[in-house]
């Protein structure tokens, strides 16, 4: 069976943004293995995403100013006797062409604030640099494999640690049994800090009697194997080797 020779840029961009299902992501991974030009395109997109995350890393650690919080809440009804200046209405009438652009910019700004807040009520695993001092950074830096810790509404567990060409990588799993959702991610340390290379979500289905929930498709293994190959990852560290790497701050 011949592999797909053409893949549209929208699909590649969705893959870089982590918006594809595990099955779709696995198909893209197989395509990229034989299409270096598309691989370079995806690498550029991911580098741009990482640069955006770094640019917002400082501001999102600060409280959202009250004037911006007001943009996220419905406007208060005017009180009797108050003087109301219909600024927004006049602006829309005088500049209808800018209304769409302004809305898009506002949506993008608000989206950045919501998506990049590090202390979200229900944190998830997303691709990009891991902020120092965050809960995820603490787990990656010092948690031994196989010991789950509370993370939002679920449990975060390091599944394995592997040596890589430029440092170390750790495979982590975020399990939310109540929501029947599982996330698997690969995070790597290259001397400059921790960064999540790839993260994907799976819907969990009930297992057989006496078993826990199981992934609905299991396609995440294909994608993780691909990224481990790119990182030049070796065999999983033993418990003793992992403990030594943690003690040395993951230095090579």
How many structural domains can be distinguished in the coordinates?
Answer: 2
User: What general outline do the C-alpha atoms trace?
Assistant: globular
Query: Total strand count, please?
Result: 7
Give the overall pLDDT as a whole number: 72
Terminal CA distance reads 43 Å
Helix content: 40-55%
Low-confidence stretches: 76-121
Helix tally? 9
Radius of gyration over C-alpha positions, nearest whole angstrom: 22 Å
Strand content: 15-25%
SS-derived structural category: alpha+beta
**SSE topology string:** HHHHHHEHEEEEEEHH
Fold topology:
Elements: H1 9-16, H2 22-33, H3 36-57, H4 66-69, H5 87-94, H6 96-115, E1 128-129, H7 135-142, E2 149-151, E3 154-164, E4 167-176, E5 181-189, E6 194-205, E7 214-215, H8 220-231, H9 239-247
Antiparallel strand pairs: 1-6, 2-3, 3-4, 4-5, 5-6, 6-7
Helix pairs in contact: 1-3, 2-8
